[in-house]
Amino acid sequence: MSAIVDFPVKPAARAYVDAFGRGDRGGEAPDWLARQRRRSLARFAELGWPSRRSEAWRYLDLHALEETPMLPPGGAQAGVGAAARAQLTELGLAEAHHRIVLVDGRFAPQLSVVDGLPAGIWFGSIATAITERPELVRPALEASGLQTPSFDADRPFAVLNTAFFTDGFILDLGPGIALDRPVEVVHLAADAAAGSSLHTRSLVAMGADSRASLLETFAGRGRYWRNDVVELRLAAGADLTRVVLVEEAAEAVHLGEALATLGPASQLAGFTLLLGGRTVRHEVTLRIEGERTCSALHGAFLLSGRQEANIVTSVDHAAPGGETREVFNGVAAGRAHGAFQGRITVRPGAQKVDAHQLSRNLVLGPRAAIDTKPELEIFADDVKCSHGAAVGDLDESVLFYLRSRGIPPEEARRILIEAFVREAVELVAVPSLRERLLVRLARRLALLEE
Questions:
Q1: Spans of the chain below 50 pLDDT
Q2: Each residue of 39-65: pLDDT tens digit?
Q3: Domain extents for the chain?
Q4: Would you report the helix, strand and coil content of the chain in percent, each value rounded to 5?
Q5: Disulfide: which of 254, 311, 360, 363 matches 277 by Cβ 3.0-4.6 Å?
Q6: pLDDT in tens, 334-371
């Protein structure tokens, strides 16, 4: 490794630097990608592991992951086994119109449905696109934050992802293209070696006046670390709905990050439902570069046992006339710990921005905890911006009312919790995606306080 490593390395990054030369990361890489991977690795070695002293990471404990590295598995992927097929069945997915399945971080064509798409759409594996569509992939990877200190100061895992990603997906819509049915991407951890990490990198590129909806599901079995990064690029007038469902294994670590850029008059509706995983962090960074945009970032989490989850959002209004809405509902039971951190920034000159942020939370029991930290940074004087947060228990008077009508106490609690989370889920405008979330929500609620 001495010929590869010629840069300083922080102790916590050493195991990953040593593992860089081993294994297969999506096949033979072109020179530009090999250089980018190496630059990213050097940046991660410089940044090291995030500390809870950092404001961006104060609510998440990654000490166990730091002390016991979870390295990418070496060698090529084996064939898709029965475990992956069983998980697809267990998830209860409807028959797919267009679906990509990634098993242990790699495209599984035998489980995917990518044929029959209209002209003007490219939907496939990023490992394939690196060869077939380098003009699309290369700019996204080369602009992954290495030249922008404000981007990667608290995002070491994004650059680690660039160094190690094996595969992912690309959805590229040409101008004026509209998809009437949702596109699905399923990320499964099925056959990976115990204690390994899965790094996936994806891109959604929306041409002018295009429209699509996307459902991403994350699920798995065993103990693993998933590190997922997706970039969303919306041109003028584009409209994207992205729904994320996280149902990782009980001992899994899930770090997911979305980086979105909005052009003039574009619309982005994002929703995240966090149901499974030992440690989960979902982060969305949104930069609004065009006028008259509309963005909605909504979501919910349900935690129990010793689960911990963070939702982190950053919305940067760099152009006038934009609208942003954020609503996140959280529920924690047992010894679980949830957190919401949201920041909306309005830059100088970004007048007429209308932005509102709301975090509402239920803490069920004395050992559970939820932290919430909404923030506004406003540098313009003609705006409408607000934020709010609330943390509390179930309303005892409402519980008493339900019990007085003959409803057992456990059923009364479940009804109120479901209504609380469902209020957020109802914000999903696509009926088929909303119903999918409600089915998985009902399943999780049955286990919440066991």
A1: 1-3, 145-152
A2: 999 999 988 888 888 888 999 989 889
A3: 70-445
A4: 25, 40, 35
A5: 254
A6: 999 999 999 999 999 999 999 999 999 999 999 999 99
